[in-house]
Amino acid sequence: MTEPLPQGSTVGILGGGQLGRMLAMAAARLGYKAHIYEPGAAPAADVAAARTMAAYDNTDALRAFAASCDVVTFEFENIPASALDHLARDAALYPDRRALEVSQDRLAEKTFLTDLGLRTAPFAPVGTAADLPDALAVTGTPAILKTRRFGYDGKGQARIATPDQAEEAVAILNGAPAIVEGFVAFSREISVIAARGLDGSIAAYDPGENVHQDGILATTTVPAAIPSSLKTDAILIASRILNALEYTGVLGVELFVTPQGLVVNEIAPRVHNSGHWTQAGCAVDQFEQHIRAITGWPLGDGARHANVVMENLIGDQIDEGLRLAAQPGTQIHLYGKAETRPGRKMGHVNRVTGPA
Amino acid sequence: MTEPLPQGSTVGILGGGQLGRMLAMAAARLGYKAHIYEPGAAPAADVAAARTMAAYDNTDALRAFAASCDVVTFEFENIPASALDHLARDAALYPDRRALEVSQDRLAEKTFLTDLGLRTAPFAPVGTAADLPDALAVTGTPAILKTRRFGYDGKGQARIATPDQAEEAVAILNGAPAIVEGFVAFSREISVIAARGLDGSIAAYDPGENVHQDGILATTTVPAAIPSSLKTDAILIASRILNALEYTGVLGVELFVTPQGLVVNEIAPRVHNSGHWTQAGCAVDQFEQHIRAITGWPLGDGARHANVVMENLIGDQIDEGLRLAAQPGTQIHLYGKAETRPGRKMGHVNRVTGPA
Known about the structure:
Two copies of one chain form a homodimer.
Chain A: E1 10-14, H1 18-29, E2 33-37, E3 50-52, H2 59-68, E4 71-74, H3 81-90, E5 92-93, H4 97-104, H5 106-115, E6 123-126, H6 132-139, E7 143-147, E8 157-160, H7 166-171, E9 178-182, E10 188-196, E11 202-204, E12 208-213, E13 216-222, H8 228-244, E14 249-258, E15 261-268, H9 278-281, H10 286-295, E16 306-314, H11 321-325, E17 330-334, E18 345-355
Parallel strand pairs in A: 1-2, 1-4, 2-3, 4-5
Antiparallel strand pairs in A: 6-9, 7-8, 7-9, 10-11, 10-12, 10-14, 12-13, 13-16, 14-15, 16-18, 17-18
Helix pairs in contact in A: 1-10, 2-3, 4-5
GO biological process, one term (chains A, B): 'de novo' IMP biosynthetic process
Function (chains A, B): Catalyzes the ATP-dependent conversion of 5-aminoimidazole ribonucleotide (AIR) and HCO(3)(-) to N5-carboxyaminoimidazole ribonucleotide (N5-CAIR).
Binding site for ATP (chains A, B): 106, 146, 151-157, 181-184, 189, 212, 265-266
C-alpha cells in the first residue's frame, strides 16, 4: 500500500457545481484542502479553501491552478482537451486524459465499449446529412441523433421518429459531428458506481434503479428490483471498463435491463447523480471514494447497509424540500445555487427506507 | 411549520475547530453559507464561505460578524459572556444565553439538573481552601476538585484520594471558584444526543456507549449494551433538559449507568464528540440536525439504521487512519489540523458493523 497524499495537500477540482461541492467536502473529510476552478458562479467555492475564477482556455490561470494543487480532478467530462494538456503538465490528473477522451465523444465511447465486447444500442456516425440514410439503416427508427461531443441531460439531441424527419434533425447540429443511436427496448434503467484505486483495486456499489423525467434523472432506488445475477453482471461490466482504461477514481455506468441482458447506455468518468444515495446508504459515499482513489487511500468497500431512495429536486421542486425533510429518515442536500431555474438541479434528498 | 431561513443565508459559527468544520459542511448541505469566527488557526475556515480572525473580546469584530450572519451558533461552550452580549444584539443566537450560562458553570449545571429532579454525582461548591472539609463531607472521598468554569477534556481538575490531599489540590485552582464532585460507582458511560427545534419539537438519537482514555473520549458504540428501559430513560432525561432550557439546537448529555438508574454526568450545549457516529448510522447526522434546528427546518427523526463504532484518532493515532480506512465499512473524518499534538483530536473513524 502506498502512502496517501499528506494531510493538508490540495485537491484541485475543475468545475464548481454541486458535484464539485460534494467532492470538496469529501476532500475536507480526508484532511485535504480543495481548490475550485470555475469560470462562473461556483457553489462549490463556498466549501473550498481556494477558488480560481477563470475561463477553461486561460492558459496562465490553468497552469497557476495546477501548480497550486497536488492532484487535479473534475466534476464533469466536457473539459476542453487543451485545458487538460496545460493541467497535466503541472499536476497529477485523475481520471486521466484517456478516460476523458473516451467519454467526451459518443462515437469513441460506443466504439470503446463494443471493442470491449460489451453491448450498446446500435449506432452509426453521422458526419453530414448525406450519411444519415445509411446510419438509419444500421440503427432503424425511431432513433436519436446526438452531437458526438458536449451533450448533457438531453441537450444537443433530436429524436428521429421516421426517416423523413432526418433532414430537419440534422439541421439542429449546425454541422457538428454526430452519432445516431437506435432505441433499446428495456424494462429498467440501472446504474453502477464503481471506483478503481491508484493500486488497481476496484470497489463497486450496489446498482441503483433510475427513473428519468424529461431526460433528467428524477429518482434512484436501491436495491434495484433486478435479479442478483444482473447485479453481478453490472459490477463486472464496470470493472471491465475501469481496468481497460486503467482508470483512477469513481466512474458511473448507466445500463439498460433488457430480456437479452444488460446494455451499456453511457459512462461518466466522474461521480454521478445516480450515486448520491451512497451518502445515506454506505459508510463510504461516492465522493469520499473518489477522493480516496485519487489521493492514494485504500478504497472503501462499498457495502450498503440501508435501502435508500434518492430524489432530485429540479427547479422549483426545491420548494418541496421542506415537506420532504420532515419525513422519516430523510437527509437533505441543497446546492446553494443562487438562482432557481427550470430543469436546474437544485438539490436532492436521500430517504432511508430501512436497513439493508 | 414556520419557513426556514432562505437559501443562501449565513450561519455564523463561533469556533473554528472540528465541530465548527463539520457544522459548516452541514450548513452547506442545507444551502447555507458558513462564517467562522475564531481567534486562531481554524480548520473550519477551509470549508466556510467566510472567516473572521479576531479575539473573543474584540467588540467591533464580534458585532461586524453578527451583522453579517442570519443566525449565530457555537462549537464550544466556553465563550465569554461579554462576547455573547455583543452577538445577541445583532443576530439570533442558538442555543441561547441561558443554555450557555448553565453549562459554563459546573455549579450552575449541577444545581439546574438537581432542581429538575435529575440525579447527579454528589457535589458541593468550593470558594476557598477553607470550604473543602465541609465539601468533602458532602461528597466523600475519593472526589474530584474542578474549576467551576472553562474545563474541557479533563483539564483544570484534580483528584482528591484522601482528605489530606485537599490543600495541594486547591493550590492548582489559583483561586478560581471550584466545585468538588464525589465519585459515582457506574458500570457504563453512555450519552444521548438530542435536539429541540425552533417549534419546540424534540428528536433524540439512540444512546451511545462511551469509553474514555486519559480523560478523553476514545470510542462510542451504538447500540449501547443497556436495557431498552434505560434507553428510554436517557431520552426522557435529555428531553426534560431541552424543555426546561427552552433550548434550540443539539445538546449532548453524558450519563452514568448505575444500579440505581441513570446519573447525569454533564451536559454540553452543542454537537458532541459522542454523536459523531450519527454520520454513519443515521440519515440525518447531529450536524445537520443542529443546523436544521437553528435555521427553522423540521428536525430529522434520529432513527438509526446501522450499528456503528466511532473511534477517535488522538495525537499520532492519526497515523492509524490509513490502516483503519482499509477496513470494511469504515468512514474516515480527518480535521485538517496543521499540527499533530499529544492529546489533540485529529480525526475519527466511523465503522459500520452491520445494519441496525
